[in-house]
Amino acid sequence: AALELMRSTGDRSWWNMIQSGSTITLEAWDIKFKPNLDWNHAWGAVPANMITRGFWGIVPLTPGFGKAQVKPQTGGVLSSKIKVPTIRGEINGAFDTDNRTRFDLQLTLPSNMKGVVFIPVRDIANPVLWIEGKRIEGKRDGKFFVAETGGGETRFLVIKLNGPGNSSEVFTRITKSQIVLFQRTRKIKQDHIHSTRRQLWIGEALEGLIKRICQV
Fold this sequence. Notes:
This protein is of the alpha+beta class.
């Protein structure tokens, strides 16, 4: 119900606030519902809390976010990214899933923070948990695997086990695809750097030539 409300494009929706020209949440859904509404109303910003604490399940377990919980409750959403500021630094998360055969979660915590992570199993039959390329006999809590992690980037992957070695092959295939994408991205960046250097060299050469011409 919460996701349906956030996705709504009716008169009583956050989408309608944007269409009305507001750059921040309003006091009411629309001016026709309250002609003297406030155009800067923090109490209308429920999604900022609902997405962080509900949808992503990011809450402090100890004062000051010394330890945080991350428990995505994704409904039918297939992918999402989030960045949450805390007193210790940013929590960054991203997930991708088909809800049937895999749930891929990448999480980055500040170096001075610990985390308890709930990785959704969803409707995955015979699920197995992989963390950073290693299969883990994960602790189960209902429809979740539960794992603890420290600061830095960690990848959690829940996939369907169809037979011996299958999970390893799937993980390797996904990882190789990411490596290829990373290598291509790095090559594009390197080509851009080389191109920029050539442009600078040509510019310096032209500047020197113009100075010589002017001296003549």
